[in-house]
Amino acid sequence: MTGSRELYKFSRIPATYLAVVFVVVTSLSFSSRMVYLSTRIWFGITPEPTCQPRTHVVFLKTHKTASSTVLNILYRFGDSRNLTFALPFLDHLGYPSLFQARFVKGFNQNRSKEYNIICNHMRFNLPEVEKVMPNDSFYFTILRNPNHLFESGFFYFQNSALAFRRAPSLEEFAQNPHKYYRPNERYSHLAHNVMWFDLGGNHNSANELEQVNRTLRELDATFGLVLLSEYFDQSLVLLREALCWSLEDMAYFKLNARGKSDVPPLSPYATFKLRQWNSLDWLLYSHFNASFWLRVAAYGKARMDHDVSRLREMRRRLGSTCLLGDGPAADNKVIPPEIRPPSFGKAKILGYALKPNLMGPTKEMCTRMILPENHYLHRLMVKQGLIKMRHRMAEPVVKEQHD
User: Core-most of 112, 183, 222, 350, by most CB within 10 Å?
Assistant: First the structure.
């Protein structure tokens, strides 16, 4: 009787509505795959890996570290293969609170491990991540020179971090941070050891060597790879090997970057003071900087140089195919609103203008490569929402057949 009632409810859904959902979802899946295949054909790329590509991936997205570019790479990889993302309700996974599994949209309704990739902003909390992701997931993150990160964040987070708003300039904040900083304010972490905070630590804790070393050992045991923003191409080559993906999966245009005119130089004294102020971030960065170069040495210098050259040539060819000009647009007003990046604080975020004659899969490929993260996130939410709707609609019929 239960199966009959389910079938009756299902039969009341208009056939035309079911058909529309099926066509839209099938079209999204087909177009994603066609974009991927056309990229390979366009650039004459043959399959590289002989291993099995990893499709269970955890990326801890840190702030102002080129993580938006990595996010786009993951979005495109998963999108082209119709993988399932653990997506947020809005634009982040409960940040700045420590991550909870319930921050994943739909997790409470279906607690089976159906997710392939989790990659949106969160404050790392391993036990809760393990509730969402399969046991064989590959964990990685990205770090950046803390002084460079801080300079970028000072302008980018003006609307969030009150400490930055109080300071007349970055130079003055750096020389006397305690004058402007309040440890218990919301978003205070953006102005103090933000990478340590993103990885789950207390940004205001004392620099106690035993505790720091214990945390670093735990992170070593969890993360299979830590990328470095300053050596982004080398990082992607290592990531390609770790994930057993092909090199064109790593092709990218730099996203969420700000204009050079927004970056004022700091005095040597301010640079020194910032290193003291963000001491936990410096310990974190120094530790993984050392392990990064051990990975590069194991990969082989000649091999690394060759693969980095290939990646850069691929990016150059993609740029000549996709972009109007040889880099970001000088004026964001020439960029259509649907692909124009938002700006934050006092930072002008650069975007790209596409060539006007692009068509079909090539246009779609180029568009996906330059989509701001919130625009792409919305696409994935729509796509996965429709896919889940189709599965829910079809499920009663399947049950009836097996009864």
Answer: 350
DSSP notation for 52-109: PPP--EEEE--SSSSHHHHHHHHHHHHHHTTPPB--BSSSSSSTTSBP-GGGBTTTTT
- Taking a C-beta distance cutoff of 8 angstroms, is the pair 281, 203 a contact? no
- Note the helical H segments in 81-178: 126-132, 146-156, 162-166, 170-175
162 CB-side CA count, 13 A: 10
pLDDT per residue as tens digits for the range 81-100: 999 999 999 999 999 999 99
* Coil/strand/helix, residue 242: helix
pTM of the entire structure? 0.84
- Has residue 346 got a pLDDT over 90? no
**Nearest alpha-carbon partner for 75 in 378, 376, 318, 382:** 376
CB 275 within 8 A of CB 282: yes
Predicted local distance difference test score (pLDDT) of residue 400: 36
Residue 174 in contact with residue 148, Cβ under 8 Å? Answer: no
Asked if residues 189 and 96 have their Cβ atoms less than 8 Å apart, the reply is yes
Q: Which whole-number Å values give the CA distances from 138 to 176, 181, 257, 289, 341, in the listed order?
A: 41, 37, 27, 20, 30
Please report where in the chains the tokens 């700091």 appear, as a residue. Answer: 266
